[in-house]
Amino acid sequence: MSGIKASAASLPVFSTGRVYAAIKPILWLTLGLAVIEATVVLFEIRPYYLPRPSAIAANIVATPGAYISGLWRTVLETALGFVAGSVFGVAIAIVFHRWTLLRELFFPLFVVSQTIPVIAFGAVVVLWFGNTLFAKAVISFYISFLPVTVNTLLGFNSVDPRQVQLMRSFGAKDGQILRRIYLPAALPQLFVALKLASSLALVGAIVGEWFGDTTGLGVLLLQAMYNENVVGIWATIVVSACLGMGLYSLVALAERRIVFWGNEQ
Amino acid sequence: MSSTAKLEPQEPIGAYAAERPLIELRNVSKTFGSVKALSDLEVAIQPGELVTVVGPSGCGKSTLFNILAGLEEPDPGNILRLKGKSSSASDLLGKVSFMPQRDLLLPWRNVIDNAILALEVEGMSRTEARKQAREMLPEFGLAGFEAQYPNQLSGGMRQRVALMRTFLFKRDLMLLDEPFGALDALTRTMMQRWLLDVWQKHKRTVLFITHDVDEAIFLGDRVLVMTARPGKVKLEQVVDLPRPRKADIVTSSEFIALKKTLLEAIEEESMKSFQVSGH
Ligand SMILES: Nc1ncnc2c1ncn2[C@@H]1O[C@H](COP(=O)(O)OP(=O)(O)OP(=O)(O)O)[C@@H](O)[C@H]1O
Ligand SMILES: [Mg+2]
After folding, report:
1. Which residues surround ligand 2, an ion (CB under 5 A)?
2. Domain-embedded: residue A114
3. Range of the domain at A40
4. Residues paired with residue A15 on neighbouring β-strands, in sequence order
5. pTM listed for this prediction
6. Which residue ranges make up each domain of chain B?
7. DSSP-derived pairing of the beta strands B173-177 and B96-99
8. Ligand 1 pocket, Cβ-based, cut-off 6 angstroms
9. Which atom of ligand 1 is nearest to the CA of B33?
10. Which CATH architecture has domain B20-95+172-279?
11. Smallest CA separation from ligand 1 atom 4, residue
12. What does the pLDDT read at residue A195?
């Protein structure tokens, strides 16, 4: 099933078989859960500190409706904030790249804005936009756009000026150079930021829900905490973790599809 | 030959006074800060000519090309005429097909899509541009490779893709900056013969930079030898070897005589450039 792939271009790589690669995550997850289960039972850890994984699973299976509707709501908020943050992040990077003055004026401001803890900011957003899905998406957006801007700028700077000169010699206009050279060249860096932004956007959505909402994973978390429903807290954590990993894998998958040429220049 | 009086006054430029030059440079200088790269350069290229340019490294050959491609404005006081029309360098943007010293292929575009880059910029639809490019693939020895990406190609192939991109951008003047510089000797001679075939078929005016004197003579109608920095034309050597040229022409006595003249001129300049930079 596995063999050593010798290559002059890298250290020997132990490539694993396809089947193993597919079931590997499940295998390790099952093993991990079994170990935790055994530890909890063996050391008689009280559920207050760490409930048994099987109890958590049972909780989710018993009331799937609450988790599914919560998950759905949080997904919507995260996706909205993430997409808006990414688009805005790239747009701002283009503006900053072309107008250095604007960059010098506003970039520090953007950085400072990120030092305001999102918790402090969240209350204001909910006051401004009401207790809506949109308000949570705004918080999500707020904490996800800056890494996108920073990395897109980094990607723009990696463009070979001779490449741009070649385009100019063809008589290319600025817009054509942006679309055909700058944006594709920034993609490898951009995706690094998008993976980070996907996780940040989820944090934004969950924290946003703490400022008042009726559904969502953040709400479930709060409710479970007030009711001292430890199993509920853990169940929500598990669902959130799955969502986070799902979003990340989605972006990583898109990366592998789109940035097939890697970082070579 | 003609006995009728010409209305237009003729400015004789070497042996090529009969035709009107496609492009003409006079008094062209270029200074980068304290570095004077070109000084009072004079060149005239006739339509359909293949002119090769040799000269010591750093003498301003690429700078000359950048000016001709419209990317760099020469110092004020220059005269630059395209088809007899006075223009500034930036007017030449989009008018000259330029192949820089590096292939500069885009890693995210496959062979076909790299080749059609200039056509796309011109506003041609992708389907139409790809169709044109596909027809040219066999001629450039790239048949069957259209879907490959640059990192899957050999150095010679990458260079041919870059050449194809330059050829597809159909302009009267083609500038090739050391197109075969990175190739091994064998591939290089193959490519030279191939370039002559393609050139004869497509009838373009070509300005070709090289470091290789054999290459300069084998390809060129004329060889321009540039001086050490600041660069100007030291010698304009007409190559009156018959075309089509066979590979064995390099051993003919005419070829060797030309080579001797050119090597002497180049050697003299190379020594100078070493003395200058040795300070
Ligand atoms: N953009 C620039 N800024 C400053 N100096 C430059 C610039 N471009 C070229 N030079 C200088 O001008 C001189 C001529 O450079 P150029 O690239 O034209 O030489 P070249 O003849 O093409 O050399 P090679 O044969 O090595 O390619 C060099 O001394 C170089 O340092
Ligand atoms: Mg050069």
Report:
1. B 62
2. yes
3. 14-45
4. A3
5. 0.83
6. 20-95+172-279, 103-170
7. parallel
8. B 32, 35, 37, 57-63, 229
9. 4
10. 3-Layer(aba) Sandwich (3.40)
11. B32
12. 95
